[in-house]
Amino acid sequence: MKTFALQLDRVSKVFGDFRALNNIDLRVVAGSIHAILGENGAGKTTLMNILYGLYQPDGGSITLNGQPAVIPSPSAAMEMGIGMIHQHFMLVDTLTVVENVVLGLPGQGLQLSLAEHAARLTELSQTYGFDIDPHVEIWKLPIGMRQRVEILKVLYRQANIIILDEPTSVLAPNEVASFLEGLKRLRDAGKTVIFITHKLDEVAEVADRITVMRLGQVTAETEVASITTRDMARMMVGRDVVLTAFEKPDTPPGPLRVVARNLSAIDNRGIQALKDVSFEIRSGEILGVAGVDGNGQAELAEVLTGMRAPSAGSLAVDGEDITALSVYDRRHRIGLSYVPEDRHHTGLVLDFSVMKNAMLRDFRVAPFSKNGVLDMRRAREVTDAWVKQFDVRLRSVDQAVRFLSGGNQQKLIFAREVECRPRVMVVMQPCKGLDVGAIEVLQRAILSERQRGTAILYISTELEHILNVCDRVAVMCAGRITGILRPQDATDARVGALMGGISEAESA
Amino acid sequence: MEQLFDAQFMADFLGSSLRLSVPIIFAAIGGVLAERSGVFNISLEGCILGGAFGAAVGTYLTGSPFCGLMLGITVAGSVGIMLAMLAVGLGINQLVAGIAINLLMVGLTSYLARLILGGDATSTLPGFHPIALPGLASIPIIGPVLFQQDILTYLMYLVVPASWWFLYRTPWGLNVRAIGDYPVAADSAGISVPFVRTVCVIVSCMLAGVGGAYLVLSQVFVFTEHMSAGKGFIALAALILGRWNPVGAFLACIFFGMSDALQLRLQFTSPDVPYQLFSMVPFLASLLALVLLSGKVRPPAAIGKKYVRGGK
Amino acid sequence: MLDIIRYVYMLRPVWAVLAALFVGAGLIAVSGVNPLTAYSELFSGAFLDYYGLAGTLVKTSPILLAGLAVILPLRAGLLNIGVEGQIYMGGLFSTFAALLLPPMPAMIHLPICILFGALGGGLWGLIPGYLKALHGLNEVIVTILLNFIAINIVSFVVGGPMMQEGAPYPYSDEIGEQLFLPIVLPGTDAHIGFLVGLVLAVAMYFLLRFTTTGFALDTIGSNPQAARYAGIPVRRYVMLSMFAAGAIGGLAGALEILGLKHRLYHLFSPGYGFDGIVVAFMAQLNPLFAPVAAFFLSGLKAGALVMQRAVGLESTVIEAILGLVIIFVAASLAFTYNRTFWKLLLERRRQVEADLGASMGEK
Questions:
Q1: What is the pLDDT of residues A314-365, one digit of tens each?
Q2: InterPro entries from the entry (chain B) (predicted)?
Q3: Are B169 and A113 in contact (CB under 8 A)?
Q4: Which among A451, B294, B310, C243 has most CB atoms closer than 10 A?
């Protein structure tokens, strides 16, 4: 009989009216790599937060190494040998690697003996083939290295069960392979690895066993060898997944609309984040921007929309130079729309009502106001119409937008940014954290804008989404565009190379 | 002009600079502690006032300045508890909570001082007196300036390096710095963010309270209404100028102390100019220092933000 | 039931004030005075007596204007602690205009004095606005430092260059009688200042509620990043709102000089700027509630002296009670109305009651 490192029986968790987890059963064999597969909103992260003591289950039991266990807090989880690596790194940027590793380490006594810890850390990192200088500050490290620091952090606490939440979503394709190798090394060293993901190929490559979740329930638990990726996808989504693209009407692209020439920009830290970026978008064309998160995409979107001044280069729309125009002028005179990446901090004012959020873009012009006086009655009519048209589910337009689900919030933003009839649209990561249904609605909205003749820049880290809707794909790495491909040429290998910074010219 | 190079004059000037710095140094070190943990402590002003009031009342009632000091620290510590409850517990805007506390302390200490100290408020209280450190005090010029001081000044000599050592050389200091920059990471490492912040705020206020006690027990030996007179706010400017580092804050406070000593000297040497022209000097110096430094320093990243686990 | 709970929430400041008065009663009792006697003396002295009411209205003028000077920028997320300094600069500038300008008809001179006051306060408020917008300096610490500077400037001016000859302590010459503000209640000091505040409060309510400017300010206050995204020129609004707030503070100072003091004294404002902060929070940042809050607060202050005379209680107790008021009001803001929470709670209660009823019935 196999020994289970971790066993969950009928674990449930309820938030308000929402059943996040419904009678979850889970068995993780000691010394194996166990993948938990599921879509956004399937309850994977809630499950992991329960294992890590951040949430308490409302029902069910947890068995750890054969003993019944209650995990009251993260520190208790660590004591029990459970280590967690979150999707967003839990590292303090201004501290060094070793300081981050010893942060919260129990039994340190009165004095911080960093030199001693650093020596032990170097030893440990060599055991697993990580090459890390313990005295360097986190913000100076590339993303892949930071992830290694996270792993070292849990290894240093002698964790035996290591949970990783969507670990590959922040990595470039060429970094993924070495990361998966690292997981295998951990397993071979006797650690139990639980690995949360929605990417089927990674599961197939590295996992021993798999649990598939959907809508807060377990739909399957099996050996990976005994299941095809097609079956995995079906169990994850609940129906056969049609991976064919949307019907993209073959409209001929219109005249040149957006011309960006040699754009460069500095990020908030003062580091050059955008280097010499040039591209063109025609009317009725969607240019996708692929790349690993944090390679200058956010700065590109901000430069285009006027929220960040470029340090060099120029930008023109329909022949008019808009490099120096304010956000206001770009939005109203040029007709530029922007669906930002961060709904909560940029796209919406969470404490405002749905109606006021609908007014946010155009409150200074008709129909929302006249001569500086707001016209609340017309605003209500317009909002009501949008809510109906975009199927935003809500109780009332006076409800604070904070209480809408992510999908409905995003639909509201789309209504606002599309209904103003833009000439240029910048869309960034519109599908992050949304369910399949909402993603379909939004992608259709983008395609119908294309149909109308809008020039669209579609930035996403999900290559699949980009290939679904875009006419051309630009790949970014380290602030540069390393290549622009047609979708049919965008094979994983080519895009992966471009994302890793090997530009077409060099590889040719 | 030649007066400036007079050794006696220099010693006097440095001595009064040090005396004027001590209360703001205590407050600024306290401020550094609170702000490194991510909590604005605008109520330093109220804590100084509370410390001064407690020191006066304790000394008046018992006749012992040590009891006064203890009561001063206790009063300031209670102010800290109140700030922690409002800003950390209830999650009210930290600046609003601090300002509310300052207003309360002005009213409360004025009222209770009249009630308890009554008409005696003008008669002087016993206090701490300078103790010359044998040997060190006989060094020319700086000896008497630095080593012929009262016990609270010596305490300050200890607090500055100790707070630096605490922040940068102990695991708890590491926790504090981590919480001020990225509380989520500290929380996931099993450190209780509210607990650490609460302790930091209370200790911060107690330190400022020592500064207030110094005013009463080592400087003027009476309690007067609103005797903190903006020292808490100068301490806030000093800790920004000192880049949230105890040693830096200490140096900035010495600078403000010197500018204060200079303006007092000017008041004395030019009696025909209204003294108010000079008494704004420390505030003007603080303001100019802030403006010149703006954009060059980065406060702890999470300062002013309440921490909610899993919050949006 | 839900509606009742919602109203209870809406009245949070009232509960907070009552709680503060309750704790304040403890403070009064400490000095051996019956709190009820003290409070009744205080309130009847402040509101029920002709001269007392006039005294309250005199204080309402600067306190209400100071409250408005806090509310306006706070809607854009800026905490203006500098009203006190803005009052001083307003007083200084209007005194300049009253004493230094060449003689002219009062019809022209008086508005100029008032405008000068507003301009002085406005420029003083623009300093932290500018430093915030272009240098990212925290407006709280800057305005606090500017308060001390402004107070010292006024003291310097009336203690030196503009001091009346032979004056026992620093004050300036008296302004011309033609520049005195009209009196509302005959035989008292109650000048038209509080009416100016009232008009301004209503105007500010309409500005914030019904105009695009109000919408922009609220957006900046709730989420500055989203405001930038919406194309709102955040820096310009930050500077403008601080200028406007400073101008209102300056107006308070000007009216205080022209209406009541009739000359510039050093330390002429006993912390009205800070009372403005209390008013702003009691009014929950709604300009329409500000007059009520300011009137109540002024009553406490005016009545305090009556109380001191009547029952021999130190009037500084009122300062302590005001401190309690703002603490309680600030604390009450932490409790936000959560409809779902209360709905769930009520439903659960109903369920329990139904179960209880059922089990009773079985017996």
A1: 999 999 999 999 999 999 999 999 999 888 889 999 989 999 999 999 998 8
A2: ABC_transp_permease
A3: no
A4: C243
A330 CB within 8 Å of a chain C CB: yes
Q: What is the pLDDT of residue B120?
A: 57
Domain total in chain C? 2
Lowest mean pLDDT among A34-48, A155-169, A269-283, A391-405: A34-48
Confidence of residue C200 (pLDDT cuts 50, 70, 90): very high
Neighbour order of strands in the sheet with A256-266: A272-282, A256-266, A312-317, A320-321
Nearest Cα residue in chain A from B178 = A92
Interface touch A348/C219, C-beta < 8 Å: no
- Closest partner residue to B185 (CB to CB) among A75, A90, A105 is A90
Q: For the domain bounded by B12-120+146-293, which CATH number is listed?
A: 1.10.3470
Q: In chain B, which among 140-179 make CB contacts under 8 A with chain C?
A: none
How far is A369 from chain C, CA to nearest CA, in Å? 7
Nearest-CB residue to B108 (from C141, C149, C323)? C323
For the domain made up of A4-237, the CATH class stated in words is alpha beta
Helix (H, G, I), strand (E, B) or coil at C256: helix
What's at A232, amino acid-wise?
M
Q: Which of A261-270, A409-418, C58-67, C330-339 has the lowest mean pLDDT?
A: C330-339
Cβ-defined contact of A372 to C211 (cutoff 8 Å): yes
Domain residues for C71? 58-313
CA C309, C311, C313, C315 torsion-angle sign:
negative
C47 vs A210, B260, C15, C184, C303, CA distance in Å? 76, 45, 21, 16, 8
Q: B92 and C317 in contact by Cβ < 8 A?
A: no
Instruction: Say what the ipTM of the complex is.
Output: 0.85
CB contact residues (below 8 A), chain B span 280-309, against chain A: 301, 309
Name the band, by pLDDT with cuts 50, 70 and 90, for residue A455: very high
* Paired tokens of C207: 């500005």
Q: Using an 8 Å CB-CB cutoff, list chain B residues near A400.
A: none
Beta strands in A371-454 (DSSP E): 373-374, 424-428
Is B190 touching A (CB cutoff 8 A)? Answer: yes
C224 plus C323 within the same structural domain? no
Q: Would you call C222 an interface residue with chain B, using a CB distance cutoff of 8 Å? A: no
Domain A256-507 has CATH 3.40.50.300: yes
Residue A112 contacts B, CB cutoff 8 Å: yes
Lowest pLDDT segment from A95-99, A116-120, A319-323, B295-299? B295-299
**Gap from B122 CA to chain C (nearest CA, Å):** 17
Cα angle B107, B108, B113; round to 5: 105
Model pLDDT, residue A240:
55
Report the range out of B90-94, B96-100, B178-182 with the highest average pLDDT: B178-182
Rounded to 5°, the CA angle B269-B275-B280 comes to 115
pLDDT at A244 over 50: no
Residue A479 CA to residue A315 CA, distance in Å, equals 17
CB-CB: which of B181, B190, B301 is closest to A75?
A: B190
Same domain, residue pair C208 and C230: yes
Q: Which of residues 217-236 of C touch A (CB under 8 A)?
A: 218-219, 222-223, 225-226, 228-233
Listed residue (A158, A190, A202, A216) closest to A39, CA to CA: A216
Beta-bridge partners for A264: A312
- The tokens for B8 are 């006696």
Q: How far is CA A399 from the centre of its chain?
A: 27
Are A374 and C223 an interchain contact pair (Cβ–Cβ within 8 Å)?
no
Q: Given the structure tokens 């209504």, which residue do they identify? A: A415
Identical fold between A4-237 and A256-507:
yes
Does residue C332 share a domain with residue C226? no
pLDDT band at C351 (very low <50, low <70, confident <90, very high): confident
Q: Is B171 in contact with A99 (Cβ distance < 8 A)?
A: no
